[in-house]
Amino acid sequence: MNYYIGIDIGTTSTKVVFYNQSAKIISTATRLYPLYHDLPDEAEEDPDQIFESVINCLAEVIKKAQVNVKDIKAVSFSVQQHSLMAVDKNGKPLTRLFTWADNRSEKFVGNFQKTAAAKELFQRTGVPTHPMAPIFKLMWLKESDPDLYNRTSYWIGIKEYIFYKLFGKWVEDYSVASSTGLLNEKTLDWDEAALKMTGISRKQLPKLMSSTDKIIGIREEYALKTGLSRKTAFVLGASDGSMANVGVGAIDEGTLAITIGTSAAIRSIVNEPLFDSKARVYCYPLLPKEKWIIGGPINNGGIVFRWVRDQLFDNITEKGLKNQDPYDYLTNLASKVPAGSHGLIFLPYLEGERAPIWDANARGTFFGLNESHTRADMVRAVLEGIVYNIYAVMITMREVTGNTKNIMATGGFARSELWCQMMADIFETKVSVPASFESGCLGAMVMAQIGVGEAQDLSIVKKFIGSVKTFNPNPNNFRRYRELMEIFISITRNLSKDFTRISDFQREFQN
Ligand code: ADP
């Protein structure tokens, strides 16, 4: 029997799953790490903490699995997108890791967004103009910290750092590289104009490789620490968004993967690069010349439901919920209310928003409140509002990708049958929830298998997914949701100017 390891490097934790060749889980390990917010809008991580997490998780899963190390054929990765750090000529970090959530370049981006260059750049790189992307962090750092700029030998992301520590080589796969905003999607090479804008040279960037390419010969020190053989292949893997799609089996055109975890995302795999003329959804290569991934990143996912739990129901435990998950209590409460929450609409923009409105100043709103509305209506309206917003992204994506035939759902929200049914009703589309655990790790494990020739292509994942729970749309709810969806979009548009006014007020009168 052969064995494979999938590593998922997320923003708050690294998860590692050890599989046998049929995708049976043999062992798992997780390590959490902090996100540093020392300055306003800062969101950094310690790259060495992440590296240690990867090494320690590998050591743990291998020790627990108790198999012959020669049978561990390959390891591969699912990795957070948009990370950036500076290193010197010896690979020593000069900064911590700037994550996608670091918004310090926001002002710079706001000005750049108004220029024709922004639109042209998107048409070449597929990355929306937003502080999440390394290209804008670089442009901002060039102005704000020229000394750092001069001292930096290489600009890299977390996966390059890990591969450098393990193998002494600067390498990156096309999907993670494209999330920098520096990769030309058509030529699959660094974009000369983008490099010029940032003032860095291609010598400061990693060598580009395919997600299924492999490197062999891990340094002795780390072979010893992890328990791996020096012959185990390290397959490059890809970004977490694309790996989640692979891991839930959303690999065909017309199948959408929707994740609602802390944030949310909607993605579809297509067979050619397709660009939204208004730059509202991204397009990244997954397997060069074969598969691209189109999607929208959404800030306001489960974090908004968490806000309901913590702020609207702070006495939730005093109500005698001893052995009940508070989210189950809340969704049960929401299930007592009919679809449409008696005409109450919630705009979920507590965190500002990326797709579909790309407005960091957007804020949350209850609309349509009357005195007969209850807390149960409010909870249901929040759950519906999160899905309306995702639906609005789908409308944008549909213009580029065509119609959706089915949805694969993942993330914490998929634990709630009510929420999944709501999604089927709002999208008027079948929603399936795979039972398989950790879709990112499973996607990475598929890349590991392809990388060493155990599998030929992505379709192997269909065998691995196992049982799927399906929610069919309920025709009684369509009409209500369609009407409310129109109002949701209309109020979001109409509030656009006032979002800026109220967020300016909130910044000025913080205390
Ligand atoms: P992460 O994005 O950090 O990996 P998860 O995918 O576990 O997180 O998602 C966490 C979110 O999932 C919570 O904030 C909550 O909104 C939602 N959630 C968790 N459990 C439930 C549940 N039983 N019912 C509905 N929603 C849930």
Largest sheet: 7 strands, mixed
Terminal-residue CA separation: 62 Å
**Record field, number of beta strands:** 23
Strand arrangement across the biggest beta sheet: 17-18-16-15-21-22-23
Kindly report the average pLDDT value. 94
Strand content range: 15-25%
Regarding CATH, which class of the domain at 3-248? Alpha Beta
The level of helicity is 25-40%
CATH architecture of the domain at 3-248: 2-Layer Sandwich
Uncertain stretches of 5 or more adjacent residues:
none
Q: Which small molecules are bound? A: adenosine-5'-diphosphate
Q: What structural category characterises the helix and strand content?
A: alpha+beta
Short description:
With 511 residues, this protein is an alpha+beta fold. It is built from 18 helices and 23 strands.
Description:
By secondary structure, the protein is α+β, with helices and mostly antiparallel strands. It has a domain at 3-248: Nucleotidyltransferase, domain 5. The strands form 7 sheets. Strands 17-18-16-15-21-22-23 form a 7-stranded mixed β-sheet, sandwiched between helices. A 6-stranded mixed β-sheet has the order 3-2-1-5-14-13. A hairpin with a 3-residue loop joins strand 15 and strand 16. The longest helix has 27 residues, at 375-401. The radius of gyration is 23 Å and the shape is globular. Adenosine-5'-diphosphate (ADP) binds at residues 12, 261-262, 302-303, 305-306, 325, 327-328, 331, 411-413, 415-416, 419.
